[in-house]
Design brief:
- The chain has about 625 residues and is α+β, with helices and mostly antiparallel strands.
- The protein has four domains: about 1-85 and about 195-265 and about 545-595, no CATH class; about 95-180, Calcium-transporting ATPase, cytoplasmic transduction domain A, CATH 2.70.150; about 275-300 and about 425-540, 3-Layer(aba) Sandwich (Rossmann fold); about 305-425, Calcium-transporting ATPase, cytoplasmic domain N.
- The chain is about 55% helix and about 15% strand.
- The strands form four sheets. The protein has a seven-stranded mixed β-sheet, with helices on both faces. A six-stranded antiparallel β-sheet has the order 2-1-3-9-4-7, with no helix packed on it.
- Helix 4 packs parallel to helix 9, helix 7 (about 200-230) packs antiparallel against helix 9 (about 255-270) and helix 21 packs antiparallel against helix 22 (about 575-595).
- The longest helix has about 35 residues, at about 530-565.
- Bound molecules: adenosine-5'-diphosphate and magnesium ion (MG).
- Adenosine-5'-diphosphate (ADP) binds near residues 296, 409 and 450.
């Protein structure tokens, strides 16, 4: 070492090195102290380094400060790896797009040059170059790189496609709906980068930890310096040295990086499998959740109800009349039931009269003026609140439909029942498996719905979960608050009409993150419309928490061992410092291991359609 060659100069070199490198940490210590956190890790570092200089261990002090800086560097390496993994998503977008010119000829351009409403041709085997809408053609699309959904989905005219998905079998003409910078993949990349860059959870952990660790280390050091000489008449110099050594060893480089490195890896691993988590705090909370509450419509079910029965209630009217009134009121509503009624009206070719003054009563009904009459469409309960409600025979009829898992709405003219419309919304293909996977993780699943008890039970019974039905939007919030009293709660919704519930839960998860709202409002989003993604999210979060625990265990364990051996005089400062370096490297490597995480919970095992499976993907 330097000191053996230049014994005298070396001391000064180390001294200067320490004093220079410690400046940024000192600044941070002062800033944190002024902000009300006097006992930060930085305070500990500075005290230890200055103490070490005081006992003539400038060399050790310099190395500790250096290692601390190296630790921060390694943290950046881990974060960089995670970021590279996320950036790899961008490489899913092909380098060329086949754009149709005005004369219908095809020209090859870079996707960044595509403008809104350009028409792009996608051949079988090609990756889609843009987010868009199919104008012509039918095909199975493999969206697995973005959504984690392994089964190709069949898409036809009017349906959306995402950049980066693979077109399996048909030629498609796609109209560009989002510029390259705003497409789904670009937004995922941006979101995850922001999530890993926000140092909030790290800072929280380190601050929480430092609040007791720093004063404890300083207190212990003080006792080591004072007690043996004062009580046992031991040598002052020996114990001052040991006390300051203790301070130096207590500097937790490995510990400080153990959390952020694991979280960055976890976020990245999830995003590449369609599990998007917006920050470490949410990732931590998901693994701790005791309960998952699901919204029914659009979350556990496909959200595409179809009208199954139309029942006229007055003499002289027919089904078409009932549908026409219902459709005219529902015209402006985006509720899944509204879409079902509009679709049924269009299918039967009924003329829909114009409505004015339409308004929604969330969780209950919609209402408008049609041809001078007040028409409302809403739950049977609302029919009873707003008017006379259903007569016993009709009520029995409605209850029978509900017991079949159908949702029944009442069409009212001037508050008097005019007809019934029943709709059925099928559970998602993997809903039962997804709930089962949660159960095997020991998480309680419950369905919250504004639909009535009978319909709710019929569907929940099939899927095997508990149900709370007949909830108005404010009741859902109250249920979530009650569940939260028993532990963290995840709320899963489609992110469109359940934003308040998503916000009220400990963690809000939006299913089918394709929509802007879902991506923006929830704490986490599942890119695929898979219920099983929720269990995968819990598993990922637990894997991350386990990784953090291993890291903290290694870091703290080594500290503890060397604290004892140093105090006992068995080892000097050097082995302790080297052990911390070793721990830093171990912790980084362990965190990077998480990048390879894959879900082990059941996926939807349905075989893809033969056409999709046999398609020449590599063509
Ligand atoms: P969910 O919890 O299943 O998502 P909502 O809270 O959105 O259900 O709605 C609860 C009930 O309110 C529906 O089952 C229906 O009876 C009634 N309702 C709400 N919106 C509408 C609408 N646009 N048209 C008809 N009925 C509606
Ligand atoms: Mg809903």
């Amino acid at each position: 070492m330097l000191s053996s060659v230049f014994p005298h100069e070396a001391h000064w070199i180390y001294l200067v090195a320490t004093l220079v490198t410690i400046v940024p940490f000192g600044r941070r210590a002062v800033a944190l102290a002024l902000a009300g956190t006097p006992f930060s890790i930085e305070t500990l570092m500075c005290a230890a380094a200055l103490g070490a200089v005081g006992i003539g261990a400038a060399e050790e002090a310099a190395v500790v400060v250096l290692l601390f800086a190296v630790g921060e560097l390694l943290e950046n390496v881990a974060a960089g790896q995670a970021r590279a993994g996320i950036r790899a998503l961008s490489s899913l977008i092909p380098r060329i797009a086949r754009r149709e010119g005005v004369a219908g000829q095809i020209e090859e351009v870079t996707p960044t040059l595509l403008r809104l409403d350009d028409i792009v041709q996608v051949r079988p085997g090609d990756r889609v170059a843009c987010d868009g809408e199919i104008v012509e053609g039918n095909s199975a699309l493999d969206e697995s790189p973005i959504t984690g959904e392994s089964v190709p989905v069949a898409r036809g005219p009017g349906e959306p496609v995402m950049a980066g998905s693979i077109n399996a079998d048909g030629v498609l003409r796609v109209r560009v709906t989002r510029a390259a910078a705003d497409n789904t993949v670009a937004r995922i990349v941006r979101l995850v980068e922001e999530a890993s860059a926000s140092r909030a959870p790290t800072q929280r952990f380190v601050e929480r930890f430092a609040r007791w660790w720093t004063p404890a280390a300083m207190g212990a050091a003080l006792l080591v310096v004072l007690v043996p000489p004062l009580v046992f008449d031991a040598n002052w110099w020996t114990w001052t040295y040991r006390g300051l050594a203790l301070l130096l060893i207590a500097c937790p480089c490995a510990l400080v990086i153990s959390v952020p490195a694991a979280i960055a890896s976890g976020l990245s691993a999830g995003a590449r499998r369609g599990l998007l988590v917006k920050g470490g705090a949410a990732l931590e909370a998901i693994g701790a959740a005791r309960t998952v509450a699901f919204d029914k419509t659009g979350t556990l079910t496909e959200g595409k109800p179809r009208v199954t029965d139309v029942v006229p209630l007055r003499d002289g009217t027919d089904e078409k009349r009932v549908l026409a009134y219902a459709a005219s009121v529902e015209e402006g509503s985006a509720h899944p039931l509204a879409l079902a009624i509009s679709a049924a009206a269009a299918e039967c070719g009924v003329a829909v009269p114009p409505a004015i003054d339409a308004r929604a009563i969330p969780g209950r009904a919609v209402q408008a003026m049609v041809g001078g009459r007040r028409i409302a469409v809403g739950s049977p309960r609302y029919a009873g609140e707003a008017g006379p409600g259903l007569d016993p025979a009709t009520l029995a009829r409605a209850e029978m439909l509900e017991a079949e898992g159908k949702t029944v709405v009442v069409v009212m003219v001037n508050e008097e029942p005019f007809g019934l419309v029943a709709m059925r919304d099928e559970p998602r293909a993997d809903a039962a498996a997804g709930i089962g996977a949660l159960r095997s993780l020991g998480v309680h699943a419950i369905m919250l719905t504004g639909d009535n008890e009978r319909t709710g039970r019929a569907i929940a019974g099939k899927l095997g979960l508990e149900v709370r039905a007949g909830l108005l939007p404010e009741d859902k919030l109250r249920e979530i608050a009650a569940l939260k009293a028993k532990g963290p709660v995840i709320m899963v919704g489609d992110g469109i009409n359940d934003a308040p519930a998503l916000a009220a839960a400990s963690v809000g998860v939006a299913l089918g993150g394709g929509t802007d709202v879902a991506l923006e409002t929830a704490d986490a989003a599942l890119m695929g419309e898979r219920v099983s993604g929720v269990a995968e999210l819990v598993a990922l979060s637990r894997a991350t928490l386990a990784n953090i625990q291993q890291n903290v265990g290694v870091a703290v364990g080594l500290k503890a061992v060397f604290l004892v051996t140093t105090l006992a005089g068995l080892t000097g400062l050097w082995p302790a410092i080297l052990a911390d370096t070793g721990a830093t490297v171990l912790v980084t490597l362990n965190a990077l291991r998480l990048l390879r995480w894959t879900p082990t919970t059941h996926r939807n095992k349905t075989e893809p359609a033969a056409t999709a499976a046999d398609a020449p993907l590599a063509a």
